[in-house]
Write a structure and sequence with these properties.
Length: 254
């Protein structure tokens, strides 16, 4: 059981309480709920204060703090104390890499997830029409058209996909795309893009045009074509050894 009531912002309480109830470790969830009332960079309360508030022993508290430090949510600073950093997509990417190393999870399975997320982001972007994100998409495509340098094409490609997720306006889609981005960035080397730069320009230009025209069906089809092209690139780059990660075409109304 917890001790004193947790101090959370009213607007955040129901969401945090709901997520806490999903955890098997309730004390861990309540600790995170309590800490998220602070701003990133702030020092967390003392172990004695936290243990009393949560109604757990200091030993149990230290175990949970260590878990949050390992996840990158907290940071210990020598002679200063422990500070809230907030979880970042890049820190989760490290966890994904470790999962790839220690389980049956494959890069291909992650690409399949990225495909589904990006397809949905493209269709949502058609409805939202974020002018700044559209401008960023157009700039990335123009960079692809203006350059034959492999590294520049690679960076323009990355900027395009980041802008597409921003255009969706969905914090969830943006977060998970950032989480996967660091892992998947290396799946398409800039040399491969340089060798097929005309198709690179076409598939991204088609996505841009569909989103500009607010055509959900065309956006979904363009993103399907983009990932089919990516699969072909990867197959040729690995001598045909791919796992067939690309899902069958989905109904663009989904």
């Amino acid at each position: 059981m917890s001790g004193q009531p947790l101090e959370t912002e009213p607007s955040d309480f129901s969401q945090h309480r709901f997520l806490t109830n999903l955890l098997e470790d309730k004390a861990l969830g309540e600790l995170v709920t309590l800490l998220l009332a602070k701003e990133p960079g702030q020092q967390i309360p003392s172990e004695r204060e936290l243990a009393e508030t949560l109604g757990i022993s200091r030993t149990a508290l230290r175990d949970r703090i260590s878990r949050l430090v390992a996840l990158g949510i907290l940071q210990r600073r020598e002679r200063e104390g422990t500070f809230l950093t907030g979880i970042q997509p890049d820190s989760i990417s490290d966890t994904l890499i470790l999962s790839l190393m220690s389980s049956q999870l494959t890069i291909d399975s992650l690409i399949s997830v990225r495909f589904a997320l990006e397809r949905h982001a493209g269709m949502v972007a058609c409805d939202l029409r974020d002018e700044q994100a559209l401008e960023d998409l157009a700039k990335a495509v123009q960079r692809m058209r203006d350059s034959d340098d492999g590294r520049e094409l690679f960076e323009a490609d990355n900027d395009f996909h980041r802008a597409l997720f921003r255009a969706s306006g969905s914090e969830g889609l943006i977060f998970f795309s950032q989480m996967l981005h660091s892992v998947l960035r290396g799946t398409v080397r800039y040399i491969a893009l340089e060798h097929d730069r005309e198709m690179l320009r076409k598939v991204h230009g088609d996505v841009l045009e569909a989103v500009q025209n607010q055509d959900r069906e065309a956006a979904a089809a363009a993103i399907d074509s983009h990932f089919a092209w990516l699969e072909t690139l990867r197959a040729s780059d690995t001598g045909g050894a791919t796992e067939g990660w690309l899902p069958k075409a989905m109904d663009p109304r989904d």
